[in-house]
UniProtKB/TrEMBL annotation:
Residues 155-167 have a biased composition (Basic and acidic residues). Keywords: Heme, Iron, Metal-binding, Signal. This is Methanol metabolism-related c-type cytochrome. NCBIfam families: 4cys_cytochr. Residues 1-24 form the signal peptide. InterPro entries: C-typ_cyt_methanol_metab-rel, Cyt_c-like_dom, Cyt_c-like_dom_sf. Residues 63-128 form the Cytochrome c domain. It comes from Pararhizobium capsulatum DSM 1112. It holds the Pfam family Cytochrome_CBB3.
Amino acid sequence: MAFRITRLALSAFFAISIHGIATAADDEKKAAVASEEDGKYFDADGNPTFKIENGTVDWYTFSGYRRYHSDCHVCHGPDGMGSSYAPRLVESMKNLDYPTFISIVAEGRKNVGGGKENVMPAFGDNKNVYCYLDDIYVYLRARAVGAAPRGRPPKKADKPEAAKVHEASCMGG
């Protein structure tokens, strides 16, 4: 699996090198569902996105909420609201494209400036994170564009069979 995530991170690096980091802020219009495959939703550019209807979130957004609060909230705060030492993801995700997100989470990142050092550790070897990168991304994207409120989603769609297969394959079960 480490090879898979490295390949994914390299793909993200090349996408960043060719296209540059997105500078246009994400919003609900850009995040709108353009296609669906096995219960997973994608925007017009083919990036994973969320679907929330009548207070019910798609399975992947709900899974992202759970996975975020399992591993990411310790530094980035509940619901992506940030902390004294990690950024508010509800803000930074607005200007962070999908390949860059994957690269940062998988490979980590270090920022030094103003006498301060911020380090995002690499999670490329953590199955509880990398098996659910898309889920975490769509949850944070929904939070960033204001489509998902704070807290546990009250209603969720059923888990698609494709999610069960992917999970078993990635987690080794």
